[in-house]
Structures are given as C-alpha cells and as structure tokens.
Amino acid sequence: MPFDARQDRMEINVSGLTKVFGDGPSAVTAIKNADLTMERGEFVSLLGPSGCGKTTLLRIVAGLESPTEGTVEIRGNAVWNGTRRSAAATRPVSMMFQEARLFPWFTVVENVALPLRVAGVGRKERTERATEICETVGLREFLHHRPNALSGGMRQRASLARALVTEPQLLLLDEPFGALDAMTRDALNIELMDVCARANVTTILVTHSIAEAAFLSDRVVVLAPRPARITAMIDMPFDRPRGLDLQQSMAFQKMVGELRHKLSEGE
Amino acid sequence: MPERTLKIALPAISVCLFLIGWSLYVRTAEVSAFVLPPPEAILVALIEMVQTRELWDHALVTITEAVSGFLIAVALGISLGFIMARIPPVEWAAKPFIVLLQLIPKIALAPLFILWFGFGLESKIVIAAALAFFPVFSNALQAFKSVEPGDKDVFTILQANPVQRFYLLDVPSALPVILTGTEVAVVLAMIGAIVGEFIGGNEGLGYLAVAHLQNLAVPELFAVIVVLAMVGLLLYTLIGRLRQSFSAWHVSSETA
Q1: Rounded Cα distance, A195 and A138, in Å
Q2: Strands (E), B124-225
Q3: What pairs with residue A11 in β-bridges?
Q4: Cβ proximity of B140 and B178 under 8 Å
Q5: What crossing angle do the helices spanning A152-164 and A108-118 adopt, rounded to 10°?
Q6: Contact: B159, A91; criterion CB under 8 Å
Q7: Residue B79 contacts by C-beta under 8 Å, 6 or more apart in sequence?
Q8: Any chain A CB within 8 A of the CB of B57?
Q9: Residue B182 has pLDDT above 90, yes or no
Q10: How far away is chain A from the Cα of B177, in angstroms, using its nearest Cα?
C-alpha cells in the first residue's frame, strides 16, 4: 500500500520535457530534458538566471506553451496531447504573472470575481466570494476602486486574490512580486505562505531571488542556462510556520550559500 | 484674470472681432453681396429659415442619411476588423482591396453609388457609410490585434470560451481606440451625405445649398452652411461624449 499512498499524493509529474523555439539554425532550446515530480501541498521554487528556461517550464505546466518533447501530468491527467492542451487537466490551475494583469475596465472586486464569472457562477455568489477573499488579503477598502488607482503592491494583492478565488489545487507563480520593493515583497511572501499552507495548495514559484526561494520553498530546483536544464534539487529543511527572522539564522544563511554555489556551478 | 475665465472669454472675443471685421470689410471695400454678404444679412436669413418647416425637414433628411451611414460603417468596420484581427489569412486575402480602398478618394465613387442606388436616401446612406467605414475599420483592426498577449494568457488560464473572450477582453481592450475612429467617422459620414445631396436628389441640406446657389440667394446659402456646421458639431459632440464616458478608465490608466 505505501506505493499507492504515494501515487495518491502525487500532484505533478514532468518527464523528459524539452522545448525548442523556432527551427533550423535559429532554433533556441528553452528547456532540455527536464524531470520533476511534486507531491500535493508541496511548495517548489524554480531558481535560476534569465535564459535558464524556468518560465518556459512553468508556462508548459500551465498549458500556455506546448512542449516539443516529453509529458506533463497533473494528478495523472496529461496537460498536453501533442500541441493540444487538455482543459480538464488544467482546470484546477491558477497563475500569477510578474505584472498584476488586472483589467482596467473592471473594479478590484470585479477583477477578483472574473474567474468565477467565466466559470458561470452567478453575480451574487461570485461577488460574495470575491469580497471575502479580498478581505483576507487586505483589500477591504479598495473593493470598488479601479486597479489603476492602486499601488503596485495592492495590485499584486488583488492579483493574488483573483488566483485564489477559485480555490485552485495548483498555483503557478511567475515572479509575481519581482517588481515590488523589498518591504512589500516580504509582506506579500509571508501572506502567500500563509494562504498556501491553509488551503494546502501545491505551488510552483519561478524566481531569480535565492533568499526568496529558500524562504518560501519546501524544495528548490536549480536551473542553468546554455543549455537550459535542471542542475540540482535541494530540500529546504526549515520548520513551518516560518517568520522573517528565519532569514537571520545561520542555517538559513548556510543554505543560501549552498544555493548560490549550485547556481554558479551551472554557469 | 484666472486662466479659466480667459479660456471662456478669449474665444468669444476673437469670434466677435472676426464678425465685426468681416462686416466692416464688406461695407468699406464695397464687396458685392453676391460674393460675400455681411454677417448680419446671414443672421437675418438664418432666423427666417429656422422658422420654416422646410429647413427642419431637409436637416432631418441629412441627419438620417449621415447617422444611418455612420451606423452601418461602425457595424461593418468593427466586425470586419475583428474577423481580420482574429483570422490573419482573411486579412492577407483582403489586403489588396484594403490598400485600394485606402488609395481611392472615396468621394469619387459617389456618382457611381447614385447610379447604382438611385436618387433617394439609399445612395446617400451608402456614400456616407463608404466614407465613414475606413477609420472605424482600421482602428478596430489595429485595436483587436494589439490586445496584450499577457492579458490573453489570463483568459487562457481561466479557460474562457471565445464568446467570453470577446466581450470580457477583446471589446473592452479595443473600445477606446475604436471610439477614436468613430469620432473621425461621424464627420466623414456627414460629408458623404452632403456630397450625395449635391450630386442628385431633391432633399437634404446639401440639396438646399445647391438650390440657393442656383437662385443666387447667397445669404441663405451661408445660412445653410451654418446649419450644416451646427449639425456636424452636434453629432461630433455626441460621439465625443460617448467616447469619454466609455473610456474614462483608459485615460486614467495612461496618467497613472
């Protein structure tokens, strides 16, 4: 039975994943032969310099980009069938981008309710659920503001609320807080860890910040460019819940040093 | 004086000075009233005309033609723009015709439309639509093409169907640019209707202008031009207001 139990906890299975953009002499290999498995509820960071294929890997899992070779499965369902994405496999997936990607023709609460609207949830129910989730991420006073009236940090809060409103099983984050100042970023990372732990969502974060990856993750996947590939996977053995003071500890500093070393090895 | 007061007072003063200058020039230089009547004569003619039913009937005809042509142009321009933005091969196939349409002075087609659609309302509506179509179409094509790829990704993740994408993403994204096109289009539709009336038929302000010309009723001719300007201003203002109310968020996103 232990084997079955493990199968049951399996959330993501990436196998032999390769993506080549273009063809002929101008072809660029964005990611080569990547393998990755994740358990339910796990928080994994893809860490590497630009050009290492981390965003491409995430976009293939999200169903935004088709793989050239290899397979991606979410709970046993193949995301890609050739170049056709499977709607069923990617239904429980939410994604956040570097930009908040809120729509200026909707208010904050309408933006947050958008995934429910698309899913056919009625106006009353979706507004209630969106309002509730907005309040948990600190947007109570901004429900009826236009996104343009918000600060960068508040916009990303709204974007996070929109990603969570559907109660996703899998959360894909493409450097969502990369453009924010350090303080806002710390605050949002703490909140992100909170909601991920509470809802037991499986999370993949793309980042080029070593400290951010070490602080948030159960496991860090290190990627290197030229050719873009996975070079290491390292567990982050820190107890949860984690606070910002963790970053001051020796063990954390040592881990950051090790990750930096792994990153430079791949160069 | 505060800037706001000046912004209202100065245009009023400059218009008054212009009218006074005009009047003085006509009197002192002894310009023939057949060439250039003094503004007060035009005003008298205008006051007499607005009291007749005739003027309003003609104005209504012109407005009907211009607005119908404009609406046809908007409907066609937006749908063709969307189809071509969505299905590039359609745009490639239509490209020679689009370029040709751009190059022909469309007003030159007016006599042809009279030939095909007769001397009634229909031919004027077609001419108005032909002139108004292009700015709506080209703005719509550009606007639908330039929907942000990142925004499309959001809708892909949400698994929105094509209809939801159209009314929740494509239309609101493109609307400000399309409405800018319609501001140009409404003026062109007005021109189309008037030119159509010049060429043939016996209704509309364009016809009325030609009729006054043939009778050498010059102050009345000027009065018709004033009315035409007013109608044009009315339509343009209406569309402008519409654009402002629809795209308030767009303006604020640029200034944010």
Answers
A1: 13
A2: none
A3: none
A4: yes
A5: 20
A6: yes
A7: none
A8: no
A9: yes
A10: 14
pLDDT of residue A200: 85
What is d(CA A89, CA A61) in angstroms, rounded to the nearest whole number? 10
Handedness of CA A213, A114, A105, A64 (dihedral sign): positive
> Tokens in use for A97?
């981008």
Tell me the shortest Cα–Cα distance from A89 to chain B, in angstroms: 11
What is the rounded average pLDDT of the residues A182-195? 89
Predicted pLDDT at A2: 45
Strand order in the sheet with A69-74: A28-39, A10-21, A69-74, A77-78
What does the alpha-carbon distance between residue A186 and residue A184 come to, in Å, rounded to a whole number?
A: 6
Which residues on B lie below 8 Å from A165 (Cβ)? Answer: none
Each as own residue / partner, the long-range contacts of residues B203-212 (CB below 8 Å, 24 or more positions apart, any chain) are B203/B57, B203/B58, B203/B61, B203/B121, B204/B58, B204/B61, B204/B62, B204/B65, B204/B124, B205/B58, B205/B59, B205/B61, B205/B62, B205/B231, B206/B62, B207/B58, B208/B54, B208/B55, B208/B58
For residue B163, the distance in angstroms to the closest alpha carbon of chain A comes to 10
CA distance B250 to B179: 12
Nearest to B73 by CA among B235, B216, B245, B200: B235
Pick the more confident residue, B248 or B246: B246
Whether A206 and A54 have beta carbons less than 8 Å apart is answered as yes
Closest residue by Cα to residue B26 from B16, B36, B34, B18: B36
Interface check B34 vs A, CB under 8 A: no
Determine whether B19 is exposed, middle or buried from the number of CB atoms within 10 Å of its CB (0-12, 13-18, 19+).
middle
Residue A3 has pLDDT above 80, yes or no: no
Q: A157 is written with which tokens?
A: 């809060």
Where would I find the H helices in B29-52? Answer: 39-50
- B153 inside 8 A of chain A by CB: yes
- Judged against a pLDDT cut of 90, whether residue B185 lies above it is answered with yes
Overall pTM > 0.80: yes
- Rounded Cα distance, A31 and A15, in Å: 12
pLDDT recorded at residue A109: 95
Render pLDDT for B84-118 as a digit per residue (tens, 0 to 9). 999 999 999 998 998 888 888 888 889 999 999 98
CB-CB contact of A231 with A31 (8 Å): no
